[in-house]
Amino acid sequence: MLKLGKVIADLSKPNQVELVLKGGRGGRGNQHFATSTRQVPRFAEDGEKGEEKEIILELKLLADVGLLGFPNVGKSTFLSVVTDARPKIANYHFTTLEPNLGVVKTKNGDGFVVADIPGIIEGASEGVGLGIQFLRHVERTRLLLHFLDVSGSEGRNPVEDFYTINKELKKYSEKLSKRRQIIVANKIDVVQDDTLLKEVEKLAKTENLELFKISAATKQGVEKLIDHVSEVLKTLPKEELIEVEDKKLYTLDDEEKNTWEIKKENGVFKVTGKPIQRLIGRINIEDNESFYYLQKSLRDMGVDSKLREMGICEGDTVVLEDWEFEWED
Predict the structure, then answer these.
(1) CB 102 within 8 A of CB 79
(2) Domain architecture of the chain: domains with CATH
(3) Sorting pLDDT into bands at 50, 70 and 90, what band is 39?
């Protein structure tokens, strides 16, 4: 059922429960087999084996807004200004080594959660830097604020940075690449040459994206941006952001089909089916009484008569799951 990378459940709702592995049914104790002539039976059923699968559990942060941008563009500073979060802030790359969350409270009393997503650089979708660890967290967000440094303090081209990060988003997830974005031109308070700012303004028009010019350090333009984000979020539905590829999950009252079949292959009679699996799983083959119970159960199920109908003869081989027997009349 599970392939590497295939999503089988998204645990994102309060009190949500999903059953992805079924445990085996418990066996019946010896008192269940007591009769008037066999008051103290010496055998009991073993419990059935449960399912075994290898499942990868991934933590994906729940946030309304994700902050994108290369290192040192001011995301952590912005988060510390608009929320009570206290991320580490320093003037070197990869100061932020893990996603930071903060809750924004607007003047109207509205609130939303912001996540600073670090480490997404060129090659992040292939594991370069820290990005591969954090791209999955962006999936939860409904809106992305794409921070660009227009001061030139890092010697980078903000337009190139914009396209580089969006390329990584698309390589990671086509759906994520279409998530709504707002461009945030940061560090306008230290702009000496407005060349980069004009390039970003042109970029916003080309990509038909909204542009906000701010200084996270001095809080210039920050309140206006927050108010706008709050209003935009009201228009974005809380959709199922993670697409579950396997729609068939078990429910607690699921019942397997109670059918069995016999196939004759190279002179061997193979009996298969859920009832056979359940029966074999509960039998202790080393115990005589348990083995007699197996024979009686097969007769009651009609397996014996079906084998005779198919022409089974003395000495023929019968296979029940992993067990092999020689037929005796």
Answers:
(1) yes
(2) 30-54+248-326 (3.30.300.350), 65-233 (3.40.50.300)
(3) low
